[in-house]
Write a structure and sequence with these properties.
There is one protein chain. The protein is of the alpha/beta class. It has a single domain, classed as 3-Layer(aba) Sandwich (Glutaredoxin), CATH 3.40.30.10. The protein contains 4 helices and 7 strands. The strands form 2 sheets. Strands 3-5-4-6-7 form a 5-stranded mixed beta sheet. The N terminus is likely disordered.
Length: about 150
Amino acid sequence: MRHDRRCVTANDVVPCPSCGKKNRVPGAAKGTPRCANCHEPLPWIADADDQSFGAVVDSSKVPVLLDLWAPWCGPCRMVSPALETLARENAGAVKLVKVNVDEAPGIAQRFSVQSIPTLVVLRQGEVVAQQIGAVPEPQLRQWLGAALVG
């Protein structure tokens, strides 16, 4: 998924990391996406804006890793591949949701974003961890791991 495209709750086609079968993964769903072929968890990466945030984030049954970013932000573009790697590694346990703060001022205000990238882990709509600024992937992995257990 690329940061420069505009998508809200549209289905994305995701290849299964286990068997390679392509699956449609919705931005919002009641459960968690699983491969139609081998039934393994699929990485869940979605975009949201002010209108779709409730459906994509607030209703998630798994913790959400929220990436508040902007297309003009170099550090945001640098951290994006690491976040997508973490989403793939934690398939079934976390949902990565990307919010372009330029297109979603209401969400930026809701999370008091003053600097980007701002990363937030939400569990049942409650903030459990926050990271401001770009950090290396190993540090992000440790931060997310601690947030998911705690």
